[in-house]
Amino acid sequence: MPDIGGSTRLFAVLGDPVAQVQAPALLNPVFEQLGLDAVLFPVHAPADRLGAIIGGLQRISNLDGLLITVPHKMEACRYADELSPAAALVGSTNAMRREADGRWYGENFDGVGFVNGLRSAGHDPSGRRVFLAGAGGAGTAIAAALLGAGAAHLSVYDPDPDRLSALVARLDRSAPGRTTGSCTPRLQDAEVAVNATPLGLDPGDPLPFAPRELAPGAVVADIVMHPRETELLRKAAALGLSVHHGIHMLDHQIALYRSFFRLGM
Question: What is the domain extent for residue 78?
Answer without folding.
Answer: 9-108
